[in-house]
Amino acid sequence: MTMNNKKNNSSATQITRAYIILLTTLMIIVSFATIFVVGLHLVHNKRDDAEQLTTVLKTSFSDYKPDWDYWRDTASINPHNTFVRVTVVPDSGKVRHFYSHRTRKFLRDDFENRPLLKNIQIQTDQGIFYHVKTSERWKHSRVTYEIWLSLNNVVELFKLIIVVVISVMAFGLLIGISAISVLARKLNAPLERLTTATQKINDADTSTHHETLPVPAGPQEVTDLSIEFNRLLTSLNNQVLRDHQFVSDASHELRTPLAAIRGHINLIRRHGNTHPEIVQPSLSTIDTESIRMQHLIDSLLQLSRMDHAELEKQRVLLNDIVQRVADNYHEQLNRELVVNAPHPVHAMVHAESITQMLVALIDNANKYAPGDTPITINLFADSHAVIEVADLGPGISDGAKAHIFDRFYRADTSRSHKIDGSGLGLAIVARLADLNGGAVHVRDNQPQGSVFSLILPIIK
Ligand code: ADP
Hints:
The protein is an alpha+beta fold. The chain folds into three domains: about 10-160; about 220-305, Helix Hairpins (Orthogonal Bundle); about 315-460, 2-Layer Sandwich (Heat Shock Protein 90), CATH 3.30.565.10. It has twelve helices and 16 strands. The protein has helices spanning about 5-10, 10-60, 70-75, 105-110, 150-205, 220-270, 280-305, 320-335, 350-370, 400, 410-415, 425-435; strands at about 60, 65, 80-90, 95-100, 110-115, 120-125, 125-140, 140-150, 315, 335-340, 345-350, 375-380, 385-390, 440-445, 450-455, 460. β7 (about 125-140) and β8 form a beta hairpin. α7 (about 280-305) packs parallel to α12 and α9 runs antiparallel to α12 (about 425-435). The chain is rod-shaped, with a radius of gyration of 52 Å. The protein starts with a helix and ends with a strand. The chain binds adenosine-5'-diphosphate.
């Protein structure tokens, strides 16, 4: 879109244009209405005047002719713009015409009738006239009275009204346009500032962090828009930061086993021939580290796939899953595994992922709690379906509780005790719980240890 198009499309231009159209239409309607009403009123006045003049004329008619002096004095008319002709047609005898002062000269000019306004006549060189014609029988004759009243002053008044209306309209438009464009620009200014700020952010070309936009005090819509926009930017910023952190954590975690593998390969290369006894232990370390890497990569892949995943849920009897997992892992654990599932609990979930979460939680309990302590699985229903995995291990500090579901987080104690792990297990559990429409929480166990609760959507 060109700059010109943008300007023509701006709301300031549109508001101004709409205002001009509205105001012009309104003024044209008002002008026509005023002219029509005033005109009608004036023509009515003329008709009344003409009727009154005719009455006086009839009264003044005596001795077979009108008494012009009497008529002029009684009717108080202006002889310069009022003309009268009286025609007497006797039943027998000659037709006679009587003309008021200057009427003969007035009638010498041509006139034309306006077909639409039957009483209006235009007299060449003399202007517009209102013409009335009445006739009556008088003694043995038919008398016709004709009066022409000048409408020139009415026309002048019309002209004046039109000039005044157009001037008022032009003045109103001028004032209105400048006022409305100032207002429109004022309303638009915060939006324009917002656009400039957004352009600046785009031009800055930083993929890691985006500035937030300035929030204007008004109008309310723009304030709301910038607040919502900032929320979006903040969430994008956080996502970008999380992604960066994730990539750097993943590289870091992969670097450790890779360094060990490379170290052992170099060792074998340099001393393998002279000290063949080091080859076997080195190979087994390489094997262990490569398995760790494999696990890590599998977990990373799973997490990345789950970002856009959707699980197919179905009605599942959770007691079955809990029992199957307990049966499968009982042997391997080499410790007591207690299952409390007194009542059947149905849930709307993805069965395989429930198994995966349960295995991850039991695996952690097994890793972190001393070997002679039992692990307990509780299954019950309240407003949700709940599966708990409780251990009597070292427990998790309040500070660590806030982070254990973050990717790559490992409490310091786990690292210092060299307990194997990647810090991705609970992140996967949290994501799977979320995909199942549930959640996972942790709390302290009594007298010690931790309880992990899987909260799932129940079917009652
Ligand atoms: P990993 O076990 O591979 O380190 P997880 O994501 O499974 O990663 O767990 C994150 C951290 O949470 C662990 O490093 C550990 O410090 C802590 N943790 C998890 N489960 C338990 C538990 N049952 N008892 C004590 N600490 C735990």
